[in-house]
Design goal:
- The protein is of the alpha/beta class.
- It has 2 domains: 1-31; 40-349, Rossmann fold (3-Layer(aba) Sandwich).
- It has 11 helices and 8 strands.
- The chain has an 8-stranded mixed beta sheet, with helices on both faces.
- It comes from Cerina litoralis.
- Belongs to the peptidase S33 family.
- Residues 75-328 form the AB hydrolase-1 domain.
Amino acid sequence: MKNSIYSFIISASLLLGCQEKQRSIAETDCKSTYMDYSNSDDQITGGVRMIPIETPKGTFYVWTKRVGNNPKMKVLLLHGGPGATHEAFENFDGYLPNAEIEYIYYDQLDSYYSDKPNDSTLWTTQHFVEEVEQVRKALNLNKDNFYLLGQSWGGILAMEYALKYQDNLKGLIISNMMASIPEYEKYAEVLGAQLPPKVYKEIKDFEAKEDFANPKYTELVTKYYYTEHILRKPLDQWPEFVNRAFNHLNPNIYIYMQGYSEFGVTGNATLKGWDVSDRLKELTVPTLMIGGKYDTMDPKYMEWMSTQVQHGRSITANAGHISQYDDPKTYFTGLIKFVKDVDNKTFQQ
């Protein structure tokens, strides 16, 4: 009889313990609304919104897609190019959801998933700054939740936006972009000179003749330069989402603003001479600079940039230009820590 009572007590304790554990798990699940879209207008589209952009040439629509739901931490992603797409950011899906940081993919006007008016009068940094501002308003981003991350050309855009609208920002992230095109061009020559001499001479000969469409030129640049400084893997090992992003690049806007070469801004491309290095001191918003040891952008210069803003921090990944894929551990650990430090008001330089 006594043994039966003991057995009953032990069984009841185990049962209650399991129920309590299940209740605890359920309560934890209920507390997280990160993937809950049920009260959102974009639930039916899975987070996708086409946002109207007012321009002097009419109203056009840009593609955005929200992932997650966090009222305090929302990161708007500005892709590179100009004329590239959000697709180069797709491996963010493997890291930010676990940290419950909301992020928004966004294709700028004339990029693959957005409207393409193909009007070069709209291909200016001034236009794109105002475009970002219209996207911000449409998505209800503000100084209490709005983090802006720009990579490559997106970094230029992010700096220009912050210099005009930093009061709207909670945090700023500049990824793989220097604050000066002339300084970038100087560094490109340093990297070029590290290529095999014969290869570099061939590349420069093609550029001198402006024979950028020559398949041999493309072969040399992709085989010898891209695999060292863009994404540090053999071309046949590049991830599908990066290849898709390159396939979707709009060459018209890219050539108009950047030019043909990876060793600087060519001809009369509109970004030639762009430089805001002496204005970095105007930035008071917490800012993270992300560089890559093997990037096309000088990592030492990226570190220097973090000392010029008023509240800066820098990390250097063991990576090329697409640092989020080359060295995701360093990239995302640093990015997540920055966002959460700013949110928790524990940010230190």
